[in-house]
Amino acid sequence: MLSPAGKLFRLQTLRLCVALAFGSPVTWLFAAEEIQFNTDVLDVNDRQNIDLSQFTRSGYIMPGNYTMAVHVNKNDLPEQPIVFVAPENNAKGSEVCLSPALVKQLGVKEKLESTLRWTHGGQCLDLRSLAGMEARGDLGSSSLYLNIPQAYLEYSSENWDPPSRWDDGIPGLLLDYNLNAQTQKNLKAGGNGYSLSGNGTAGGNLGAWRLRADWQASVNHQTGSGKASDKQFDWSRYYAYRAIPALRSRLTMGEDYLNSDLFDSLRFTGASLRSDDNMLPPNLRGYAPEISGVAKTNAKVVVSQQGRVLYETQVAAGPFLIQDINDAVSGELDVRVEEQDGSVQQFKMNTASIPYLTRPGRVRYKLAAGKPTEWGHHLRGPLFGTGEFSWGISNGWSLYGGAIGGGDYNALSLGLGRDLMLLGALSFDVTQSRARLPQEGVKSGGSYRLSYSKNFDEYDSQVTFAGYRFSQEDFMSMGEYLDVRYQGDRNGKSKEMYTLSFNKQFRDLGLSAYLNYSHQTYWDRAANDRYNLMLSRYFDLGEFKNLSLSLSAYRNRYNARNDDGMYLSLSVPWGSSGTISYNTTIDRNDNTHRVGYYDRVNEHDNYQLSAGAGRSGATLSGYYSHEGDMAQVNANASYQAGRYSAVGLAAQGGMTITAEGAALHRIATPGGTRLLLDTDGVPDVPVRGYGSTVATNRFGQAVVTDVNSYYRNKASIDLNALGDKVEATRSVVQATLTEGAIGYRRFAVIAGEKAMAIIKLADGSEPPFGATVMNARQQETGIVNDGGSVYLSGINPGEAMTVHWNGAAQCEVHLPMPLPADMLMNNLLLPCRPVGAQDTPRPDDQTGAAAHGH
Known about the structure:
This protein is mainly β. Helix content is 5%, strand content 55%.
């Protein structure tokens, strides 16, 4: 009797023999595009009973329907049905049929679509119509590999796909929630109370449309008050939206908030269409300058910043223009043009980033129309329309403006943005409003705004935003006009506003500083001021490493009264994952000191404990956070001597339901994009998006929500945490999803026991050498060796598997139920009956009994 190790060796012998038959030039001959094997190299008893048809033609796949993942150059498309057909001029051959729907996903340039030729009645692409294109199918990995010259395809980057590959996902329903519960006991006055609150989003997806409804609810109860519980529930917003890829825009209908860079926001019911920079490649989003020059020869252009290469490309001799520098890049750039003749050109380029600068030649716009809406879905005010734009005139200038009009209210805005290169970026705009009020007549006024941004690389500092705005007394936003007209009052007439955000790095000291200042004056009340200063430093002290010290100080001046405060904290790493901290808070009312300890239990759990003292008394508090597969759950408790004790609980999660399956899960953004992952019904498989790992539920499904819209997202199985009885033949999937989509991807997973078996046909013979065994999901679970022996994976009690040779399923075997306890030490004996024959094994059957001594 062979040991398990010997049986595994026989399986490896089979694969080695086939490899040798392929690889040795003296053991095969080409004939009619087929490979003829010299079976003398195979150590088998019956050389006449061999089926190597799947190996006889390089890359040959029998005509039929297959489910495959599609790989286009280095990019992946979703798993989908792929058809292989016989060529029109060769009934014995086989070629892949690329349907019009699949070709649309490839991202072929629009100007080439009219040149494509089709076969089989227009259902299959003639690959010769794209010179240099190659297609290869691989049944072992269930993949179709397409190599297409890049010149034929739309622009794509490492993490971004063109619109032709965007996936609107599958239809489904979703319900996301954020729930909070708290109970509090007043130790001083007696009595206690509790509160429950929640909010979230419910919705459904149908094609490209996203239907959403935001909700919020609360219950408050206080014992001893003599009042009933205060209960509220409201559907706060109903809306629908979809992407318009051709316009790189988003269309929203229903209740919305005005999204504007020029006018104040207001709630309205209607429709809006606005440019969505998320639909652009990362390097074309926002604003960044063009880099132009002239190359004397074919040259390499390198763009770097402080020695780090940000962009590199090759250009032909003559003028060149680089337009896809990432908008996240800011500050001074070094440009180096390395000519092929050995000469080098070098120059510097400065960038800036403020909302009113647009890339040269591009136009961004926002359009909206509707009626203003009050809380409670009541329309209030006239029908209005608004539109705004920003146009990149040249490499340094941007023109922007807009208008809003509705009944007795109208406003017009116009501005100009300028990239000052070395001096930063500046924009200036003027907005004029005109409102007719029943009691006060016509009110007209202007508002003037100046904005500035600059990086000072040589000083390691940055003015992230500096702004000034002055509004005349009779200037009104549309929201203020509605308040005056329908409520008769207008509080807080804005006059002047100064804002400044500045940060500075002191690298020699390891110190970073941030300052924020705002000053607001009004026509009808006292000025408001806010100062906020933050300092932070990381340092080492003796044996203690990576200590962190931070200081935050602020002043709020409101209604001629100052509110000053300061927060100081020190944290010291402790152990492998813990941190000990001390902090003190000083404000107008109290002065407290706290010590705390934070630690991570594992990837999903962490906790924090703290104790403190102040003028109000001693305090104790604790906090625990758990990132579960179905929800994020936080629990907390606090106690202050002589005043109160409180306990709180919070849960954040969601539920996604589709025809492909359903799952409870954590959420990132309520109502946002998500990816439903399927592991072929195998539960407890660890899958990972960009964040922590989650396990599939009892139905073999999980939802990950840490996905980005319009980015190429990848999800994978954590193979290191996979169980011993589970193996993944396809462990990585990817998807580029439109905003709000419910994506669906399936992994190829086989679960079950593994053991050696012997397959016998009805006449006592064995299937031919090289026959394959497939489970119900058409996954290959083994290859038949000499004498019908096969090493099977994915063995489950009572399951049926089919045995294939000569290109078709010839018979099926039924695994015993229950499985024999000693099958790992002895071969299973599996009769192979005609497909469809009734052969349900019973516990007292001898089917599947161990074949001793074979």
